[in-house]
Amino acid sequence: MNQTTLELSINAAARREADEPRSPVVTLDRPLQLESGSTLAPLRIAYQTYGELNAQKSNAILVCHALTGDQHVANLHPVTGKRGWWSTMVGPGRPIDTDRFFVICSNVVGGCMGTTGPASTNPATGEPYGLDLPLVTIRDMVDAQAMLIDHLGIETLFCVAGGSMGGMQVLQWAARHPDRVFSALPIATAHKHSAQNIAFHEVGRQAITADPDWREGRYLVEGATPRKGLAVARMAAHITYLSEPALQTKFGRNLQDRDARTFGFDADFQIESYLRHQGASFVERFDANSYLYVTRAMDYFDLAADAGSLANAFMGTKTRFCVVSFTSDWLFPTEGARQVVHALNAAAANVSFVEIATDKGHDAFLLEVPELFATTKGFLDAAAKTRGLTRL
Amino acid sequence: MNQTTLELSINAAARREADEPRSPVVTLDRPLQLESGSTLAPLRIAYQTYGELNAQKSNAILVCHALTGDQHVANLHPVTGKRGWWSTMVGPGRPIDTDRFFVICSNVVGGCMGTTGPASTNPATGEPYGLDLPLVTIRDMVDAQAMLIDHLGIETLFCVAGGSMGGMQVLQWAARHPDRVFSALPIATAHKHSAQNIAFHEVGRQAITADPDWREGRYLVEGATPRKGLAVARMAAHITYLSEPALQTKFGRNLQDRDARTFGFDADFQIESYLRHQGASFVERFDANSYLYVTRAMDYFDLAADAGSLANAFMGTKTRFCVVSFTSDWLFPTEGARQVVHALNAAAANVSFVEIATDKGHDAFLLEVPELFATTKGFLDAAAKTRGLTRL
């Protein structure tokens, strides 16, 4: 072992101890009643917390993660070793300030980072559920989170915040548990999945189920992994997370480690190499069946249909909302955010709306976007003042 | 055989005779010099013609087809039995009027409808080429077409017209053979493929090559077909051909033949059913390796890089241009058409530019868009007058 390798090992060990705690997991006795009519028991929920809950239990912020995110918001990720997906947003002195707020994030039901999902053991068979797991919805994800919040003894969340599918959960929380949500910060999201959104998800699911190593969903039992199918699904989805101008600026038609085109099918272009890398690395950390379940939950999301109208979904709410969209986000465009804002207005809710100019596309909610940070900090500061929250 | 089946058979037979001639195929003695430096011989070109060539041979219009199109512009398609892909545009009394013009369309080199492509027999082995076919480019497609035009004894084309990849060929024709193109009608196209365009193509190629039935490209020799991979590729691409508003209007979140969601992975939504159908039917008529070759040709297209600048590519041209784009085309947006127009202006070319307002997306060039028909007819009429073409 040379010096560099040794240092890396020491660093890795230190990192594991300092920053990569195994997520606490709570196993809940009560079954989760699912929207489909099925029940799920036992329900395990894996989560992370940051900061301290105050004596009044009034400073808790629930962060909801997106499709391929997880509970590792602000610590090093135990699988990838990378910084948490919202470590720019959440931490001491950050917009979601863990010196001030108690931040909770749990892996969604249907996920693959410790919460019950298709890779979990089916108590009826002793084998992984696979497709025998009942389908879950955004509402089911939120109800599971509510059970966790009960378990933590928290009555009302100071804020529920999240982007993309996380934003769907924010909206669902506000609609389903209005008295438990003091403020809500839905970012880069919509109250329903569009036809184009569903179409891209369906391509991803078809790519996974086309892989013979998917084995009709039984790959874990049979010792296989549908790597290629899952990688293709990730590649297709990844394009939708980036804006065309961002792709143009970042990659354009630049060649990858070569001076000229090879007149073949290698990754001549940087964008090809980048996408292949995205696909390959995703497979290392995500479960293919979870991808099916969680994409399906997003497709099924339609708050307006559930409540008769979107305004109905929020009627009488006391929650304070800040709705955020990004100009270059073509997956969840500003128009969708505007529909939510109009419905909140119709429901006489307290709502502010910020459309942030950026070329970073849908992924902007995960990136260093100063206006997003300023908006978040300003909204939370004002809400904290209204709630009488002083610094710890 | 019942009555209906009998009638269908009779109709099919009649159709075969009347409207579905086998395409003429010319085998050219001279090898095709490819941009890669390789040569291709023998070169077979399958093509269709409509209308009559006048005595001066001055009324020929070359139509260039798109990625998954072919030479069957205006006759019933021999495989699908459907009307040709541009039968609304090309025919007696149509905007490209076969009572007046002699219309030619050939299957591109690398294609799979009779022109030499990866499914053709490699004379060196007696087996299908597969990946042993040298890579072809848009320039190679145009040079093959030029050899066909030579073969037909036509010196100058009255017009070269096409959409999408067909439009790339139009631009390449004008840049490479300026003296042979009296007028050019590039529609819904660009002078280079963008990073996002390449990205979507790469997803399609990865889907195909991930299919174990692709057999490293040797599926024809080994008696397999990478159906699932090709279907996924088609599904992903198909989304990019439609605008989000069109998808919303046509499908929205409508369910397919059911009253409620099934809480499963069936095609609950119409958009899912539609995409699955698109994938499944495409596989019946297209060769997977051709999809790899032809997408690659598009990715490699960059007229500006070839000529130092886009204006250089057209400098001194006498060709009359009409550049057409569609407002809702996000695959080949108006911005790309505008770049072509600016370059043509810089090259002091005769150019008109029409951006057509439609919600039909990229596919608009294939659909009934009255403004496209009027633009085409007007442009061709004016060019015919300039060229002194009278009605036959």
What are its keywords?
eight-stranded mixed sheet; Rossmann fold; globular; 38% helix; 12 helices; homodimer; 392 residues; disordered N terminus; alpha/beta; two-stranded antiparallel sheet; 12 strands
Account of the protein in words:
The structure is a homodimer of 392-residue chains. The first copy, chain A, is of the alpha/beta class and 392 residues long. Chain A has a domain at 19-193 and 303-387: Alpha/Beta hydrolase fold, catalytic domain (Rossmann fold), CATH 3.40.50. Helix content of chain A is 38%, strand content 15%. The first copy, chain A, contains 12 helices and 12 strands. In chain A, the strands form 3 sheets. An 8-stranded mixed beta sheet of chain A has the order 1-4-8-5-9-10-11-12, sandwiched between helices. Chain A has a two-stranded antiparallel ribbon with strand order 2-3. Chain A has a two-stranded parallel sheet with strand order 6-7. The radius of gyration of chain A is 21 Å and the shape is globular. Mean pLDDT of chain A is 93; it is low at 1-21. Chains A, B: Its EC number is 2.3.1.31.
